[in-house]
Design brief:
The protein has 1128 residues and is mostly helical. The protein contains 57 helices and 2 strands. A hairpin with a 6-residue loop joins strand 1 and strand 2. Belongs to the RRP12 family. This is Ribosomal RNA-processing protein 12-like conserved domain-containing protein. InterPro entries: ARM-like, ARM-type_fold, HEAT_RRP12, HEAT_RRP12_N.
């Protein structure tokens, strides 16, 4: 107990005493009312010391207290009892930390250390642990005042700290160890460090005989103090070994290695921790001399695996990895020599229990990534084929691969995921060199896959491992080792299971290899399927043929010979497009792969000498063997693709017109990719040819109206042609864009809704890809679109609004007068759409407004912030209109934007007051919308931001608390409850006008009485820590709740008999929640219901009390009539 109090006092001293503090006064302020004996002794001792200082006319500073206490100990150490010593030592330990740096001279510090050491020598046996701890702390602080460059100055204090660092009393020992580490860190002189290190080594060696004896035991007998001292000594070493001199560090390491056995002992954990700490901070020269001995000892320990505790085995494996890191940096020959041994020992842990195996797997993967590289295996810059065995690095790698091959051979069944993961990393790190070192592993993995073909549920990791081999070796070498073949006699296939793996992991292959080996193999399967008599076998062979042909897209993932082989491949592709329908999608995907991967490199910001490494689709594998493309290579590849694009475009276009809609989607993407790299004259010629063939333009290039005959067929052809035109937009020049626009304009003016939808989409593509067209044709485009009749068709409306989105953003950024006028017209149509009676239509309008707002916010242009505020200002302009319909729509828009980003309220200070001003009007629709807006504002704003609008909000909404129709009173009640929860009831009462204080009081009382109320509800600080009251984007709402919430807050008007017009609140808050988060309305509806119920309940209670007080039936009757009237 005394020790705990002592610790408390020392912590207090560190916290409140400064270099000018009066220690005695501080203690009296703290402990004057305490009745604890130790506190009374401490205050009395401090008072006595202060009297000594005062008598000497010295200032009452910590330095004066220090001198007086030390003098008192010198003069009275023989006569003081243990209580007096405890008080003085505690007082000194509180005083010293407050003494300024360098305030105590070196000689005085040395003298004070001598005094304390003498006190420990003469009176230490009878001192309490708390007193000893206080003296040890004083020694630790005083050593810092000594001359740290002079060993004689610090030796006495350092030696005493070292002695107590192995003390049997825990707090004394920990205090000594902490200050010993601090002192070691403060040494700057190598001489002092060497002398201190020698002292540590001497103490450690004195314990070595005992350590050797204990090392043969698995547990230490704690009843013998000497047994515990060796453990304490090892604990000291763990702390200070990083600061020891190189020579002493090496000697201690040698002593520890003598104690390191293959089997676990009582000292093993401590030894491993010390070695680990030494390796983390020591230089290479400390490790190299004993590297072989270290690795041998630790490997022997790790090899025993489960016979030793798992944590110590992993610790030893970690130290082995650190040893290799050190050797790799300083001693290459020793690194190569020990590499196989380390891998062999750690790899044995991969079959241990899951946790150990996982950690061992991590260590091995890090070793592979850091220590194995194709470059280390190169001889004179070339790959060692025949001479691999003569290279020491190659021999080491071969030995490591043999370790994992043996692991596969010894596994019973499919190896666990940890073994396979490490082998995968090894494949990827060695790359193409895997063919020489891991050939047998590939064959073994194939055998395991063949045996497990019946049950593929447990082969995921096995397939991923083989996939790594495919990535590293490439399909050519994999298929050399594991050829896919067909027996012509019995029609059996070998290694056909490899096709799905190839389809997932091939990258950086050769197009020529596909044409010369894969395609003939697929043809052989196809021919065999026609020869076989059994239909089932024939279908299987046909499926295998299609699977092989289906490898085309993966062979187009960064192929190594695009420029050389694409011309030949094009002939095969065109042939397939004309004959084999099952290849259409594969060809389309392949062309997109080839174009997009090269374009992405050309668009990158890296230099020509840079290269990009790409991950495989649908795989987590990344490897240096993945094909790397430079910009120079990509440029040549694009040239080769463009040179063959005309034939391919024509073939794809012909196919496009004859394909069903589901096929046209991927064909259109392929056409778009090829058109983006082709000369626009080619694509324009193809488009004109298509238009002429379908008689959509006449001989002079003018678009013709669809006649009465075959109208349906003509409309269909025009829609398909418009799809084709939209795919040609990217990369088109001005002439082609002009032609496409004329086609779009003609279609918009003459086609049906389905045709218009295609035209709107094509126009949005033109506006997205060609900003110059948007600028040059802005006025005409807006007039064209606004001249067209709006629609309730959702798909058509989305396409139309997509065009409006781009045009409106452009207008807001340009800030030209005429464009501003057109921007208002666009915004006007969107706001009017918000008042549509159909929920889906209104949702489209809300979505496009959010997209427009996000586009302006996320724009990288300097004017983006101003453009966004300009949008808000434009919407606010509608608030001054004459139509309640438009006003409520504008408020609804602002509710959406505030719900998405509440900072709008502070960035546009006039926003909230301008909307609140509408509450002075009488239009029900507008009032509903404004109350919904206010609900959004108070729910979304943080309490500190809401404070600035609190007066306006209260003055605006409280007048409507007296209106019960349209639930205005209930809505105001909900708003008020949210405000109280965020800002506190005191703030609300203070700002409430006198006229409405009764209503506010009733709301607060109801809230207090309502179920679930808590004291913290009125605490705005706690409100800040809770989730936002609006419950935006709640991740915990179930799908069913979300659907129900959408239905309740839907965009359609609330179904009431009395109100058929669109609900203003719905056009505000409810639509926000429908577009963004469904759970908000559920929360508020419950709150509103509770508030409404509480008001009714209190009204009933008050009426009953009134009736009872009157005491006659007539008055009761009058009270109930009054209540009924109020409810009504």
């Amino acid at each position: 107990m005394e020790e705990d109090n002592n610790t408390e006092e020392e912590q207090l001293a560190d916290a409140i005493f400064t270099e000018k503090s009066d220690i005695c006064q501080g203690l009296m302020n703290r402990y004057a009312k305490s009745s604890a004996p130790q506190h009374r002794h401490l205050i009395a001792t401090a008072a006595a010391v202060r009297s000594i200082i005062t008598a000497e006319a010295l200032p009452l500073t910590p330095l004066s207290y220090f001198a007086a206490v030390v003098t008192t100990i010198v003069n009275s150490s023989e006569t003081l009892d243990t209580t007096g010593i405890a008080a003085l030592s505690t007082l000194l330990s509180m005083v010293l930390p407050a003494v300024p740096a360098q305030a105590i001279t070196h000689p005085k510090a040395v003298e004070a250390v001598s005094v304390l050491v003498e006190l420990l020598r003469s009176r230490g046996e009878g001192m309490a642990a708390s007193s000893l701890r206080a003296v040890v702390k004083c020694l630790g602080v005083l050593v810092g005042f000594c001359d740290l460059e002079d060993w004689d100055s610090v030796s006495l204090g350092f030696e005493t700290l070292l002695k107590f660092s192995v003390d049997k009393r825990p707090k004394v020992r920990k205090c000594a160890q902490a200050f010993l580490e601090r002192v070691f860190k403060s040494f700057q002189s190598t001489t002092v460090t060497k002398e201190a290190s020698k002292l540590v080594l001497s103490l450690f060696k004195s314990y070595m005989p005992l350590a050797v004896r204990l090392n043969s035991l698995k547990t230490v007998d704690g009843s013998k103090p000497e047994n515990l001292e060796i453990l304490h000594m090892l604990g000291v070493l763990k702390l200070i070994v990083p600061y020891l001199s190189v020579k002493v560090g090496l000697k201690i390491l040698l002593e520890l290695l003598k104690l390191m056995n293959a089997q676990f002992s009582a000292l093993t954990r401590h030894i491993l921790k010390i070695i680990e700490a030494l390796f983390e901070t020591s230089r290479v020269e400390v490790i190299i001399p004993e590297a072989d001995n270290i690795i041998s000892s630790l490997s022997s320990y790790v090899l025993l695996g489960e016979k030793n505790p798992a944590d110590t085995v992993i610790c030893a494996a970690t130290v082995l990895r650190g040893t290799l890191d050190k050797l790799d940096a300083g001693e290459r020959s020793a690194w190569i020599r020990n590499l196989p041994l380390v891998f062999r020992s750690v790899a044995g842990l991969l079959t241990s229990e899951a946790s150990t195996a996982s950690q061992a797997s991590t260590i091995l993967k890090e070793l592979i990534k850091h220590h194995m590289d194709q470059r280390t295996l190169l001889i004179n810059g070339s790959i060692p084929f025949q001479d691999a065995s003569e290279n020491t690095e190659s021999s080491a790698i071969k030995s490591i691969c043999a370790v994992f091959e043996n692991a596969l051979n010894t596994c019973d069944g499919i190896p666990n995921e940890h073994v396979l993961d490490v082998i995968s990393v090894l494949f990827l790190k060695l790359g193409e060199m895997s063919y020489f070192f891991m050939k047998d592993i590939v064959l073994k993995l194939a055998d395991l896959t063949s045996c497990a073909n019946g049950d593929i549920s447990d082969t995921r990791h096995l397939q991923e491992c083989i996939g790594s081999a495919v990535t590293a070796l490439g399909p050519e070498r994999i298929l050399t080792l594991l050829p896919i073949s067909l027996d012509a006699e019995n029609f059996t296939c070998s290694n056909i299971w490899l096709v799905p793996i190839l389809n997932k992991y091939v990258v950086g292959a050769s197009l020529r290899y596909f044409m010369e080996h894969i395609m003939p193999l697929a043809e052989s399967f196809k021919r065999a399927s026609h020869k076989v008599k059994k239909s089932v076998i024939g279908e299987d062979l046909q499926a295998h043929a299609h699977g092989l042909w289906g490898l085309l897209p993966v062979f187009c993932r960064y192929p190594t010979d695009t420029r050389q082989s694409f011309g030949s491949l094009t002939k095969h592709l065109i042939s397939f497009l004309k004959k084999n329908s099952f290849m259409h999608e594969s060809i389309a995907i392949s062309l997109q792969e080839l174009v997009n991967q090269n374009r992405s490199i050309l668009r990158s910001s890296e230099g020509d000498c840079e290269s990009n490494t790409y991950a495989i689709k649908d795989s987590m594998i990344q490897s240096s063997s993945v094909a790397s493309y430079s910009k120079k290579t990509a440029t040549k590849n694009i040239g080769a693709l463009a040179s063959c694009s005309m034939e391919l475009l024509q073939a794809l276009t012909d196919l496009f017109f004859g394909s069903p809609p589901e096929k046209r989607s991927y064909l259109k993407d392929a056409i778009g990719c090829l058109a983006s790299i082709s000369d626009s004259s080619i694509t324009k010629r193809i488009l004109i040819s298509s238009l002429e063939r379908l008689e959509l333009i006449n001989g002079v290039g003018e678009f013709e109206n669809v006649g009465n005959s075959s109208t349906t067929e003509k409309d269909t052809q025009r829609r398909v042609t418009m799809e084709l035109a939209s795919s040609l937009v990217e990369g088109a020049n001005e002439d082609l864009i002009d032609l496409i626009y004329k086609f779009i304009r003609h279609t918009l003016l003459t086609a049906d809704e389905e045709g218009q939808c295609k035209a709107y989409y094509a126009l949005s593509r033109v506006l997205e890809e060609h900003a110059w067209f948007c600028s040059s044709q802005f006025i005409e485009l807006v007039e064209l679109l606004l001249g067209l009749k709006s629609t309730d068709d959702i798909t058509l409306l989305k396409s139309r609004f997509a065009c409006f989105h781009i045009l409106l953003v452009h207008a807001l950024k340009m800030s030209l007068e005429e464009e501003n006028t057109k921007a208002f017209l666009i915004l006007n149509e969107i706001i009017l759409t918000l008042k549509n009676s159909k929920e889906e239509v209104r949702k489209v309008a809300y979505d496009i407004l959010l997209v427009i707002s996000s586009s302006l916010e996320n724009s990288s242009s300097l004017s983006s912030e101003g453009s966004h505020q300009k949008l808000i200002s434009m919407i606010m302009g509608y608030l001054s209109g004459s139509s309640p319909h438009i006003k409520s729509g504008a408020v609804s828009v602002l509710s959406v934007l505030v719900y998405k980003d509440a900072n709008i309220c502070t960035s546009v200070p006039d926003l909230v007051p301008s909307v609140l001003a509408l509450l002075q009007g009488k239009a029900v629709e507008v009032v509903k919308a404004v109350l919904g807006f206010v609900k959004v504002v108070v729910s979304c704003l943080q309490a500190r931001d809401l404070q600035s609008f609190l007066t306006d909000v209260l003055n605006g909404v409280l007048p409507w608390s007296s209106v019960s129709r349209n639930h205005f009173r209930s809505k105001v009640t909900v708003i008020l409850e949210i405000v109280v929860r965020k800002c506190g009831s005191a703030a609300v009462k203070l700002l409430t006008p006198e006229k409405y204080k009764g209503f506010v009081k009733t709301v607060l009382e109801n809230r207090h009485n309502s179920k679930g109320s808590s004291k913290e509800a009125d605490d705005p600080e706690k409100e800040e820590k809770r989730p936002n009251a609006s419950s935006r984007g709640s991740d915990f709402t179930s799908l069913r709740q979300q659907k129900r919430g959408h239905k309740e807050l839907g965009f359609s008007p609330r179904k009431r008999k009395r109100e058929k017009q669109p609900d203003g609140i719905g056009s505000g808050m409810k639509r926000v929640k429908k577009a963004r988060h469904s759970n908000f309305r559920n929360h508020e509806k419950q709150t509103e219901g509770q508030a409404r119920g509480s008001v009714k309940k209190n009204m009933k209670r008050s009426s009953r009390r009134e009736a009872t007080s009157r005491g006659d039936g007539e008055r009761k009757k009058m009270a109930w009539k009054k209540q009924k009237k109020i409810h009504k």
